[in-house]
Design goal:
The chain has 131 residues and is of the alpha/beta class. It contains 7 helices and 5 strands.
Length: 131
């Protein structure tokens, strides 16, 4: 089971050539097993990027996300109370970006590997990552 960081999700859907080889292979394997998770905070991040003009999608953001939600091999994980609290209690030195903390907490709570290019997240101890 894998959790896609927001950029990994965007790139996988729109620009798969930007993904690392290991990430591409892991996503394909998880797709076949129907074990791709995405935190709902990533939907918020995508919508914020579109609203701020930092990202353009081929569809309206709600339509783009709805199409992703309809994929049978992908599951969006809501930010429940346990994940929200765990995001505030992550040990060690992890930057203060709340979205990244929630994504890490989501992966930890599901025992999943986090697919991310973010070096700070990949260097964070206690979570399995790949790129």
């Amino acid at each position: 089971m894998i959790v896609l960081d927001t950029h990994a999700w965007l790139w996988w859907v729109s620009n798969p050539e930007l993904l690392g080889k290991q990430a591409t292979a892991a996503i394909e394997e998880a797709r076949q097993r129907r074990e791709i998770l995405i935190s709902s905070i990533s939907a918020w991040e995508v919508a914020m990027l579109v609203q701020r003009g930092r990202l353009q999608l081929s569809l309206k953001v709600h339509e783009w996300i709805a199409r992703c939600e309809a994929l049978p091999f992908m599951e969006f994980v809501p930010v429940d109370n346990a994940i929200a609290v765990q995001a505030t209690c992550l040990p060690g030195d992890l930057h203060g970006d709340p979205a990244d903390r929630i994504i890490v907490a989501t992966a930890l709570s599901h025992g999943a590997t986090l697919v991310t290019k973010d070096r700070k997240l990949r260097d964070y101890p206690g979570i399995a990552t790949l790129w």
